[in-house]
Amino acid sequence: MTPSAEPLSTAASSTAPANGAGVPRHVGIIMDGNRRWAQARGLPRALGHKAGAEAVRRAVTAAAESGVEWLTIFAFSSENWRRPAEEVRDLTGLMRLYLRNEVGSFVRDGIRLRVMGDRERFGPDIVSSIADAESRTARGTRLNLTVALSYGSRAEIAAATRAIARKAAMGEVDPAAIDEEMVARHLFTAQMPDPDLIIRTSGEQRLSNFLLWQSAYAEFVFMDVLWPDFDAAHFAEALGIFQGRERRYGVSAG
Ligand code: IPE
Ligand code: IPE
Ligand code: MG
What we know:
This protein is of the alpha/beta class. The protein contains seven helices and six strands; from the N terminus they run βααβαβαβααββα. Strands 3-4-2-1-5-6 form a six-stranded parallel beta sheet, with helices on both faces. Helix 1 crosses helix 2. The longest helix has 25 residues. The radius of gyration is 19 Å and the shape is globular. The termini are far apart. The N terminus is likely disordered.
């Protein structure tokens, strides 16, 4: 929620690896652990989510300064609607504030914001704040930030399947021509490269319905830090672990 005071520096920060080979082009983050963070401090849940929103800014800055081109963050899942109404209200209120407070610094720092997911479920005021943020940041070229809101990967794949089936029924698509590229073109991520690295905080080791199709060959880094404590040093640590991995894509390293 705190707008960053300092513009992004143009050089890589001291904790971030230098640009170039080995920097993942697309990083996905499953931001987890807000409620446990609050609970550990005897604070209300809402303050855990507020601290989590502040950590988002640190992650965005760290990604941009590390030379990452695409950052996709999981902020609210399709399943999170089943949380208590009061918590959903707190989270929606934070989104509203976040969209209002951060857009100016995103424009200044060249960060292009997009939202993927079933945004209509949040109601007209959030829908219009999202549209406003997307259009005001549309010229950003430094970092493509995608926020997954009311997002579920299975719902996304089902929607893509419906769209392709509709085209087939209209005779626009030959079923025999449906291939991986066509499916990928019908996902929210159609214009994005696949994630190279997926980070999940809080020690949980699962995807919880995030980018299932797109993560086929992603590297996974699970970190013990709770999301509100996540900072540039954690981001750099995850990039360091990624750089030590050998990616094979099913082909022998020989
Ligand atoms: C992540 O933290 C934020 C959302 C999923 C909205 P949680 O709210 O899941 O916090 P924990 O994982 O229960 O600690
Ligand atoms: C995943 O976290 C969703 C987000 C980070 C938005 P959850 O806390 O909702 O996932 P589970 O319940 O631990 O699988
Ligand atoms: Mg959680």
